Amino acid sequence: MAGWEYFWHIWDMKQTNTKPDHPETNNPWLQRIKEVIEKKLVTGDLTNDVLALEVGISERHLFRRMKDLTGYTPQQYIRQYRLEQAMQFLKDGTFRTVKDTAQAVGYINISYFINQFEKKYGQKPLEVLQERGWR
Fold it and tell me: DSSP per residue over 95-133, as a string?
């Protein structure tokens, strides 16, 4: 789907109050967002203005478009992506400490990472490591 077809597709979804199933898989724009997030993940300087600049749109347009397509603000989307990556790293045993995992997904404050992780998954990152026998 390209150009105006995509616009009308989104318009129809808004009118019927539905969200696309797994928008990342069928939307090249969101794929681009995901690529930028992956590229900037470790640096920790992944903010709305950096993301908007990389994609080539204004912050306001980025906010509206992300909210329409995913139901998340850009920061919420980034946070979800970081936490999902962290869970994958913990499950795979890529990193054997919570600190290394947090830093690998761009968190500087380890206690904030633990708090956000626990909110999303209902368990602490250390518990995931212990379940897998990594600690």
Answer: -SSHHHHHHHTT-S-HHHHHHHHHHHHSS-HHHHHHHTT
The model's pTM = 0.76
33-86 pLDDT, tens per residue? 999 998 888 776 788 999 999 999 999 999 999 999 999 999 999 999 999 999
Distance in angstroms (rounded) separating the CA atoms of residues 126 and 61: 38
Contacts of 106-110 with C-beta under 8 Å, sequence gap 24+, read: 106/40, 106/41, 106/42, 106/43, 106/44, 106/46, 106/82, 107/44, 107/82, 108/44
Q: Domain limits of the chain?
A: 3-12+23-77, 80-131
Phi, psi of 98 (to 5 degrees): -65, -40
Distance of CA 56 to the CA centre of its chain: 19
∠ CA 3-5-7, rounded to 5°? 75
Radius of gyration of the chain (CA): 17
Q: Considering the domain 80-131, what is its CATH architecture? A: Orthogonal Bundle (1.10)
CA distance 47 to 60: 13
